[in-house]
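Pasting two entries for a bug report.
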Amino acid sequence: MAGIPTRDRVSPEPNARPLRRPEWIRVRAPSGETYEWLQKLMRTKALHTVCEEAMCPNIGECWGSGTATFLMLGDVCTRTCGFCDIKHGRPAPLDWEEAERVAQAVKAMNLQHAVITSVNRDERRDGGAPIFAMVIRRIRELLPGCSIEVLIPDFKGRLEALKIVMDARPEILNHNVETVPRLFPIVQPQDRYEWAAATLSNAKKLDPDVLTKSGIMVGLGETIEEVKAVMRDQRSWGVDILTIGQYLQPSKKHLPIRRYYTMEEFAELREYGYSIGFKWVEANPLVRSSYHAAEQVRALSVVHRQLYGEPAP
């Protein structure tokens, strides 16, 4: 593995003609006082966000409303996924003070729901899981009542690493499948579908009360029937919340967009998700894993109280 971080990814096919972006995909340009305040907060605390590192199209909307998704374990990933704009290479040693800085930022933002993700750290057997546990517990100390969602790596399917995170009891445990099994070797060559299955199914076995969540990108060459097959798998693993969004190519060095899904196709996938038992489905071109995350946890907490007469965990 190269020692110098890089953003290079799998190149698209030679002479591939880029598709015209449809009119229903429009994003809000980043601007405003709240956006600028958040940007300054992240820099002063030496923090990273997936919003910036992965060039999320919703950064203007989310940062403008005072929310962000924190990126932990540094900003260099040990994997080379063809869709992602996060740098890859040999990462620096773990920063054990990072969890404290993230928790302090969550407190400064006075968040009702915090979303925290990370790069992959495959050089460590625990994948950096202890820092996830540290930040969950520290946020609870600094800002009681703030619900916490962690979007974790697959830890190569290792139960012992997952258990470290689950023992801290996040409200939502998220791991994205990203694509269909046939495309894993192209889209995320160092990942395994079996690792995603183990992560999500074991999370439910370790703590059935924790909401589990996963996401899929579309437009990379899969069929709708393949997407539905993955959705059925996710339900069989106990996944409660599903996000489905359109893949948008970050640069010419990344995998090309094979096609844009229509609004009608997203509606079809949303309806199918509910029909097979998901508790919540977000399906829209600009949906990303943490999009409307706070609304999801609040709504499902209400449902939990109605069913069981007590607050959701």
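Entry 2 (this is the one that rendered wrong in the viewer):
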Amino acid sequence: MKFEHFALNVPDPRAMSQWYVENVGFKILRQMEVAPFTHFLGDDAGRVVFEVYNNPKGPIPDYAASHPLTFHFAVYTTDARAERARLEKAGATLFLEDPLPDGSLLIMLRDPWGVPLQLCQRAKPFPGY
């Protein structure tokens, strides 16, 4: 098996998808223009990263109230500090900057909807990055 996606029930999947396209470089791989406005977003390799939708059958979690160690998703970058500055200008907020002993840098942000987004600048990236 291969990882396909994880999903988030969010208040405005269209706006959230657009923010991730414009600011994180994701692509919309599939979308629905009617409720629940499902959008599947992928990275530049075309891998499915996450699905966002608005479905009243389930509650929308208070993402901003959840500690990022409870839930977050992460993206790889070669310059986490530059990406942090750029994303903050686009509405993200800083939660924590965490330099690691091996030379890696992890920066935890919250997107404009409060969802924890981690920038990973790893001294030794995972294979394929």
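Dev reply: Rendering is fixed now. As a check, the viewer should reflect this: The mean pLDDT is 95.
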